[in-house]
UniProtKB/TrEMBL annotation:
Coiled coil: none annotated. PANTHER family: ATPASE DOMAIN-CONTAINING PROTEIN, DNA-BINDING PROTEIN-RELATED. This is ATPase domain protein, prokaryote domain protein. InterPro entries: P-loop_NTPase. It holds the Pfam family AAA_35.
Length: 533
C-alpha cells in the first residue's frame, strides 16, 4: 500500500501530507522574543524550512490564543520599477488576503478597498492593532525581494511603529528572507557600509539563522517513512546521506525521495543501500532541479566567485570585503558555517566544479569506443590518464583559461573536467577543498582501487617540497604509500618552451612513492584577485 505521506521537495511542509520534524523544535528564542515584544529577523538559504517554520509558528500562536499572527509575503512588490505608493498597496493586499488563512473575520484587518485613510502600511497596521484585543505577531516573508527606496520605506514604517507597540502597532515583527539585515543595507546602497544612524531596521533584537539538520534529525525524519511503510534507512545509509547533504533540508528530502520513488519505484519491500544514495546524488546533479539551479545562478556573483575560487585552490584570501563575501556565501548556504571555509556539502562540492567547467567537459570527447585509460583487467591506468592530460593541457590550456570566468581556479577546473570521464566510466571522485589548506585533494575510487591526487599552485620556490610534505601526511591518514602531486605553475614569460613547462618525475618522500606532475602555463598580463597561501 502506498504511503499517504512523502518526502517533500516543493513548497512548505504540511504534517498530514509530508514527512517532517517540528520546525520550532530548537526555537525557544523565537517564543522568548515574542513574549518580550521584540522585532527580529530570520534568514536562511532557499528551501531550508523558513516558510514551513513561519506557518507552523503562526498557527501555533493563534491556536494557543494569546496572540493574533499572520504570515504574508511581500514578493509581489519585489521589482525595481515599482513606486512606493503601488508597493504599499500590493503589500497591504498580500497581508489582507493571507490573513483569512490564519484568522477569523473579527481578527482580520479591514479590506483595503474599504480603507478611507492614506493607504500606507504604517497606517494600516496602526488601525488593525487598535481594533484588536490581542497583540499582533506579524511575519513578513521574502523581505529581501524588495529593492531600493521601497525596501527603505517599508523598513522605516515598521521602525516608526516600534515605539507605539503593542497597543497601537504589532507587538512583534519578524522579517524573513535569504539574508541577514546587514545585507539589506548593502542591497540599497552597495557602496556604503551602512545607512547611518537612521538605519531603517536598527530596532531588531536578534538575527536568527536557521541551521541544517543534524544526523539525529535526519534519522528522525526517515524513521517516519519506516513507520509508515516498514522500509528502513539503515544507520550506514543515514550517515552517507548526511555526508552528501550536510543536513541541508531540501537535499535530505530530495535524496530520500529520489531513492524511494524514482530508483525503487515506491517498492517498500526493497532494501535501501548506500549505492542507492550514490545513485540519487548523481541523478540530482544531472537533473539539476530548481534548488540546484538557484545555487548555480549565484556562482556568477563576484562575492561568491571570490570565495569559491579560493576554496578550489585551497588558498588563503586577501581581497576587499572578504568578511562580507564570506557571510554572504554562508547566508546563501553555499559554504559551511564552521571553519575551515569549505563548500557546504558533497553534492554542492560535486556540482559546482562540474558547472564551472561544463562547456569544457562537453568538448572533451572520447577517442574511439574503448576507454583508453582502462587496463585490460578493468583497472584504471592513472599514469596514462594524467599523461594524456599533460598533452591536453599543452594543446588547450591557454585557450580554455582565457574563457573561464573563474580564471584563478582554472587550472584545477581543467583537471577536474578531464577526470570527470572517470566518474562517467563508473568511478567516483571525492574532493577535499577548503580555504587556507594550500592545496586541493582529489581521491578517485575506481574498480576497487583508490588514487590520491593533490593539486597545488606553484607560487614559490619551496612549493614542491611543501606539497610533498602535505601529500605524504594525507597519504598517512589514508594508510596509503602512493600518490600524485600536480603542480600548476604560472609563468609571466612568453619564451619558455613547452619541454620545460611540462614535467613528470617519480619521487620517494617520507617512505611514499609520489609522482610529481608539473604543468606550467604562460599567462598574458592580467589583473587577478589577490590570493596568498
Amino acid at each position: 500500500m502506498k504511503s499517504k505521506r512523502y518526502f517533500n521537495t516543493t513548497g512548505f511542509c504540511m504534517p498530514e501530507r509530508h514527512y517532517m520534524i517540528d520546525p520550532l523544535r530548537n526555537q525557544k528564542i523565537i517564543f522568548d522574543l515574542i513574549e518580550k515584544t521584540q522585532y527580529f529577523t530570520v534568514h536562511a538559504p532557499r528551501q531550508t524550512g523558513k516558510t514551513t517554520l513561519l506557518h507552523e509558528l503562526a498557527h501555533r500562536l493563534n491556536k494557543e490564543g494569546n496572540y493574533i499572527s499572520v504570515v504574508f509575503s511581500v514578493e509581489s512588490a519585489g521589482y525595481r520599477s515599482i513606486t512606493e505608493e503601488i508597493a504599499n498597496k500590493k503589500i497591504i493586499n498580500s497581508l489582507y488576503s493571507s490573513s483569512g488563512q490564519y484568522l477569523n473575520k473579527n481578527n482580520c484587518p479591514i479590506s483595503p478597498e474599504k480603507y478611507t485613510k492614506d493607504l500606507t502600511l504604517e497606517n494600516y497596521l496602526i488601525d488593525w492593532a487598535i481594533s484588536q484585543p490581542k497583540p499582533i505577531v506579524l511575519l513578513l516573508d521574502e523581505i529581501d525581494s524588495l529593492y531600493d527606496d521601497v525596501l527603505v520605506s517599508i523598513l522605516r514604517q515598521l521602525r516608526n511603529g516600534f515605539q507605539i507597540r503593542p497597543k497601537r502597532f504589532p507587538s512583534t515583527v519578524a522579517l524573513v528572507g535569504l539574508r541577514d539585515v546587514r545585507e539589506y543595507k548593502l542591497k540599497v546602497r552597495p557602496t556604503e557600509a551602512s545607512l547611518g544612524s537612521g538605519s531603517p531596521f536598527n530596532i531588531k533584537a536578534e538575527s536568527i539563522l536557521l541551521g541544517t539538520f543534524t544526523k539525529e534529525e535526519i534519522s528522525e525524519l526517515y524513521s517516519q517513512h519506516t513507520k509508515d511503510t516498514g522500509q528502513i534507512f539503515s544507520k550506514e545509509v543515514v550517515d552517507r546521506i548526511y555526508e552528501l547533504t550536510g543536513g541541508q533540508p531540501w537535499l535530505v528530502n530530495a535524496v530520500a525521495n529520489e531513492i524511494v520513488e524514482k530508483i525503487l519505484k515506491s517498492d517498500y519491500t526493497k532494501t535501501i543501500t548506500i549505492d542507492h544514495a550514490e545513485q540519487a546524488k548523481e541523478n540530482l546533479i544531472k537533473r539539476r532541479d530548481t534548488h540546484l539551479d538557484s545555487l548555480i545562478d549565484k556562482l556568477k556573483e563576484e562575492r561568491v566567485k571570490n570565495i569559491i575560487s579560493a576554496i578550489i585552490n585551497g588558498d588563503g584570501v586577501l581581497f576587499d570585503n572578504y568578511d562580507d563575501s564570506l557571510m554572504y556565501c554562508r547566508d546563501l548556504g553555499i559554504i559551511s558555517e564552521t571553519r575551515p571555509v569549505r563548500i557546504a556539502n558533497e553534492i554542492y562540492q560535486e556540482i559546482i566544479p562540474r558547472v564551472l567547467n561544463r562547456n569544457l567537459q562537453d568538448s572533451i570527447e572520447e577517442e574511439g569506443e574503448t576507454k583508453w585509460y582502462i587496463k585490460p583487467d578493468g583497472k584504471l591506468d592513472m599514469d596514462k590518464l594524467l599523461k594524456a592530460f599533460q598533452k591536453f593541457y599543452r594543446r588547450n590550456s591557454e585557450h580554455w583559461l582565457e574563457r573561464f570566468d573563474y580564471k584563478e581556479a582554472g587550472q584545477g577546473l581543467l583537471l577536474m573536467a578531464f577526470l570527470q570521464r572517470v566518474i562517467n566510466g563508473g568511478g567516483r571522485i571525492d574532493r577535499e577543498m577548503a580555504v587556507g589548506r594550500g592545496r586541493t585533494d582529489l581521491t578517485i575510487e575506481f574498480a576497487g582501487e583508490t588514487f590520491v591526487l593533490e593539486l597545488k599552485l606553484k607560487r614559490y620556490d619551496d612549493t614542491k617540497e611543501e606539497g610533498l610534505d602535505q601529500i605524504s601526511r594525507y597519504l598517512d591518514t589514508l594508510g596509503m604509500t602512493k600518490g600524485y602531486l600536480i603542480l600548476f605553475e604560472l609563468k609571466s614569460s612568453t619564451v619558455i618552451p613547452w619541454e620545460t613547462r611540462i614535467k613528470w618525475e617519480e619521487v620517494s618522500h617520507q617512505n611514499k612513492n609520489i609522482t610529481v606532475v608539473l604543468k606550467s602555463l604562460t599567462l598574458r598580463p592580467v589583473t587577478q584577485t589577490a590570493l596568498v597561501t
